[in-house]
Amino acid sequence: MIILYGKSHTIEEAGTLAIKEQNLGNYQAAIDIYNLILARAPDHAIAYNNLGNALQALRRFDDALANYEKAIAFKPDYVEAYNNQGAALEGLERFGDALLDYNKAIVLKPDYVAAYNNMGNALLSKGDIQEAEKMFLKALELRPDFPEPLFNLTRISKYQDKDIKNIQILLDKPSTSTKDREVLYFSLGKIYDDCGRYDDAFEYYRRANDIGNANVSYNPDMVTKITDGIIDAFSKDFLAQPFAFASNSRSPLFIVGMPRSGTTLMASILSNHPSIATAGELPTIIGFTPQMPELAKNINPANASRLINDYEKR
Description:
The structure is a single chain. By secondary structure, the chain is an all-alpha fold. It has 18 helices and two strands. It has helices at 11-23, 27-40, 45-57, 61-74, 79-91, 95-108, 113-125, 129-142, 147-156, 164-172, 178-194, 198-213, 220-233, 236-239, 263-270, 284-288, 292-297, 301-313; strands at 2-4, 7-9. α5 packs parallel to α7 and α7 (113-125) runs antiparallel to α8. The protein is globular, with a radius of gyration of 23 Å. It starts with a strand and ends with a helix. The mean pLDDT is 83.
């Protein structure tokens, strides 16, 4: 038995309470309960998996991975744990490893739509848009009312008015969850944008954002801290350093810029060219900003070509 909130609970009851806390966004409370469960039942695969999910929600990806590994060790055919482990690996930008886990989940459960959708996202992050599209389409084939792959397809393709009808049918269903409505509203906004119906696009983006903002805990102090860090790292003296270079390499082109600096708009403009496709955004710049002064010492025009050649060999 486990004592929680002044009452005695079975392991199953404690697990239900942990999931309830998790669904409310009380991740640390859920983590504490899962740890109590695992102290009583150290081979409880479901508790390890759910603990991993709570840790992943807090972006503690390494800790989440450790728990998914334990879940799989105790239950080698744990499909959901493989899928969740893949998501944690994506959080660490280990996209190749994530794809292996998604594939394991699909091998164990060939109709696992979430794994197909997640595999599409990982492929998109690697820049493989064609294969990503195949995964999203497969997910929709298995489950036509799944909003996530539908939204992902609108991100990489231009849709037309005729595609609006199917989304509206899903929105008209009383059973469609609030979370799914948010995704569907974003999808409609993108389609209306593609069709040049900008007033309609703004309206559906507004509806989606209203739902999302109701569940977001905005931390202005953290935003200020991140912004100040970027300003300090990318000083006038740093940007004046002569480490720019040109190359005729056929390697992918990376558009790099500070948050809110116009890089997304530039990528959107370039992607209108029939020979150009974009692979989405990464939060990489925030992660390596504190390391930039040290990194800059090791990058100069003299060794830039070598770095490119090393990349192409990989």
